[in-house]
Design goal:
291 residues; alpha/beta; 9-stranded mixed β-sheet; 9 helices; 13 strands; 30% strand
Length: 291
């Protein structure tokens, strides 16, 4: 049976407003997308790691309650599960980000799930670039490609994690080579490639490696699907962007559409307009609450 494999960091986000904590939740697009997909009754496996500390228990409990298979999550006793603090002002404008983490020297010792043809593998963020795990990650991506799985790459990450983009650019380009579909915000593309428009980022930097890009334009409330010379766009409801989980919702919507379409790498190499439209419409639906 085909399945969805999500590879990403397990962590906790804490939101501060004027110096006071106002909210906390499991962090990261991939963790939240995995929970959303499991809430849609799709078969989802999380491949990650988390300490046996209290923060790790919160994040793993969140995934288990959503119905995610956590058999490929490594629980390490030495270290701490990452915590990211987001500081905002009265208007909820982000002012600064502080991150705390403590990984043991030997980690990312997970049991890889079986990968079959037609599976969908979601990976990205700094988790797919970190030198401590890059050798094992590369082996897995190569294996997924050989098994004809569909690889969905999310290239965005916090600039605080690696302010010198040139250090990780070789790994980003290698990830693009493995990918069958890229999902990014226009702000991610500007940070990584220095491109002023998503169109320029696609044609000058991505198309050579991967033919399918879905870009979220936050300012204009629009999702666009680029494939070769073709582009299809749909609007995102403005209220959708008020949710902290909207980015994960886009990922979950895209992946659920690929799952229902029985997508293959070949399909994403030259997707027809109706395919692009169906994927975008799924991505643009409002995020449903996860109980």
């Amino acid at each position: 049976m085909k399945k969805i494999i999500c590879i990403g960091e397990c962590g906790l986000d804490i939101i501060f407003r004027n110096g006071k904590p106002v909210d906390s939740a499991p962090g990261g697009r991939i963790v939240n997308a995995a929970a959303m997909l499991a809430g849609m009754k799709l078969p989802v496996i999380m491949a990650s790691e988390a300490s046996t500390d209290s923060v790790g228990e919160i994040v793993i409990g969140f995934l288990k309650d959503a119905g995610v298979d956590i058999s490929s999550v490594d629980r390490y006793p030495d270290g701490r599960t990452p915590v990211t603090l987001y500081f905002t002002d009265n208007d909820d404008k982000l002012t600064s980000v502080t991150r705390y983490e403590q990984y043991p020297p030997e980690c990312f010792d997970i049991v890889w799930p079986r990968v079959d043809e037609g599976d969908i593998v979601v990976f990205g963020g700094f988790y797919a670039l970190d030198p401590r795990m890059r050798p094992r990650m590369t082996q897995l991506l190569q294996h997924c490609s050989e098994r004809k799985a569909v690889l969905v790459y999310l290239p965005g990450f916090l600039p605080q994690m690696e302010p010198r983009i040139t250090r990780v650019m070789p790994a980003i380009l290698e990830n693009l080579e493995y990918a069958n579909l890229v999902i990014a915000r226009n702000t991610d593309l500007k940070f990584i490639f220095g491109a002023d428009t998503d169109n320029a980022a696609y044609h000058n930097h991505i198309d050579f490696y991967c033919r399918s890009l879905i870009c979220a334009d936050i300012t204009n409330h629009r999702l666009s699907y680029y494939s070769g010379k073709e582009v299809t766009s749909v609007d995102i409801p403005a209220e959708r962007l008020q949710s902290l989980c909207w980015r994960a919702g886009v990922v979950a919507g895209v992946v659920s559409a690929l799952f229902s379409l029985d997508a293959t790498p070949d399909l994403l190499d030259t997707p027809a307009d109706d395919i692009r439209t169906r994927v975008l419409e799924s991505a643009a639906r409002p995020v449903q609450a996860i109980s």
